[in-house]
Amino acid sequence: MANTVIQVQGVSKSYWRDSFEVPVLNDISIEVNEGEFFGLMGPSGSGKTTLLNLIAGIDRPSKGNIVVGGVDIAKLNESALAKWRSQHVGFVFQFYNLLPVLTAFENVELPLLLTSLSKAERKKHVELALDVVGLADRTRHYPKQLSGGQEQRVAIARAIVTDPTLLVADEPTGDLDKHSAEEIMTLLERLNKEYKKTIVMVTHDPRAVEKATVVHHLDKGELS
Amino acid sequence: MRVLKLIFKNALRHKLRTSLTILGMAIAVMAFGVLRTVVDMYYEGLEATAANRLITRQSVSFIFPLPYSYRDQIAKISGVEKVSFANWFGGTYKDKRNFFARMGADPETIFDVYPEYLISTKEYETFKQERNSCIVGSEIAKQYGFKIGDIIPLDGDIYPGKWEFVVRGIYKPRDKSTDATQMFFHWSAIDERMKAEMPRRAGNVGWYVIKIKDPAQAAAISEQVDALFKNSSNSTKTETERAFTQGFIAGFSSLLNAMNAISYIIIGIIMLVLGNTMIMSARERTCEYAVLKTLGFSGGHLFGLIFGESLFISVLGAGVGVLLTYPVVAGIEALVPKGFFPYFFITPSTLILAASAALIIGIAVSIFPIQRALRTKIVDGLRFAG
Questions:
Q1: Can you tell me the distance from the alpha carbon of B122 to that of B109, in angstroms, rounded to the nearest whole number?
Q2: Topology of domain A4-223, per CATH?
Q3: What are phi and psi of B166, to 5 degrees?
Q4: Hey, are the CB atoms on B1 and A97 less than 8 Å from each other?
Q5: How far is B373 from chain A (nearest CA, A)?
Q6: Chain A residues near any Cβ of chain B (below 8 Å)
Q7: If you measure CA to CA, which chain A residue comes closest to B7?
Q8: Whole-complex ipTM
Q9: For A58, which of B1, B2, B294 is closest by C-beta distance?
Q10: Mean pLDDT, consecutive 10-residue segments, chain B of 386 residues?
Q11: Which of chain A's ends, N or C, has fewer CB atoms near its CB within 10 Å?
């Protein structure tokens, strides 16, 4: 029986806009098992990115508990949460979010700067990650010298370079053409199947979600 | 890759904007440095004053003369080591723009009371013996090409007529703050012509320079000197050389205050220039800071990145500004006759002030962007479109 990596229990989230409370998630409970490729679908404004942010520890729930890898992350303070994220979560964003002044190598190396690895060890890890995403020959390229698909692959390399417990991907194909989107999804599927990475992906692309092993739908803040 | 490299790369991300900011800062620092140098030079005269020298002048104004006969009476006061005197000659050397101090002085004592004017014994002895001779400072000798044996023609104004003096010595300054832009000739040369042409003006000196044995006795001796001539038609005012110079500078106080104020306004302008750049840069990078926070970078890391970039630009701007100040000050020094600014150099205090200002500005302008980067929630930062 697979271990449960993520437990979301009775989570609600609201935002305040001026003096108005805007409910986004309402009493959500889900579980994600180790090695699962968890797809979360839903229309814009359904709260899927908010749920992903809560699982990834970059936002806090208004109510409920989120346990990831045995840690109740809602109870961690900011610095502990930052440290936890650096060790356990790899992020893939819709718009890649690479630092434009750094090369592909340097972008991938960024999360490793927070570790105690030596320069040589960091180099080894970065080269391995870039090799996994098929960009071993693009280490010295800056983001503006890469295509959208290549940028996203660098972002995936950055996400996996610390060998995190969990990969979270927010609309990873949202800014890509069909061909590049397929490449990225194939890569994520490979990371899940070959490298046994637990992935939580948010998308509204039906083709992308086909690669997921478990799919949930979210609408108006509630699972359907 | 290190955080320093990221700071460097961030600073040079918009090369034109960063270059213009550094250039703007450099020009402002240079303007600050030049203004401070001008202000400093007015006050540098104070540094050149000696604690054991008193100046006795006419009590109403410096422009009124004192009788030569006072000399012996002053010399008798206990604690007085040497009494010398001088007259402001004025006049013109070839062109009115060729300004330098020209004074008729007592050849026997003038270099005793001013030991900071270094002159060879041979030149000094020749000067003493020849009534139509003069000694010039090395700075004006260099500027006007005066050599031993040259004749310096002067057109008199306070003392009308044509005057000629033979250069018999060139004195050198002992210290950087010593004035080497003066010309001394025999007071008797003036006095004798006055006796012949304007007897009413003969027998007068401009001021007395009194060298005292103990600087602690300055106030007491000053009182004694002034008491001697209290009821005469030419009462005196005696004060330390420093107080005398301060009184002289006070005449320029409005100008100096204005220059001081402008120099600090320039600091404010630098702050606005750099502050604007840093706020723009930090705002543009809101999303990047959110990404860094997402990856696990702490507030301390962001602080270091923004603070480092701000400091990098401010220090570079200040450095270039200070380097620019040297040739500009040298250019001004070359353009302005030596007599106007006998001392014109960048003082260490100006450099320290410029460097401190750059450091403070670097720190101050990073506060707002740092605060903003730290306060922005990750989810808000990731949504930021710039």
A1: 16
A2: Rossmann fold (3.40.50)
A3: -95, 130
A4: no
A5: 15
A6: 50, 53, 56, 58-59, 78-79, 82-83, 85-87, 91, 93, 97, 99-102, 106, 109-111, 113-114, 158
A7: A101
A8: 0.92
A9: B294
A10: 81 90 90 87 76 92 91 95 95 89 95 94 95 94 94 94 95 88 95 92 94 94 94 92 83 82 86 86 90 92 92 91 91 73 78 86 90 91 76
A11: N
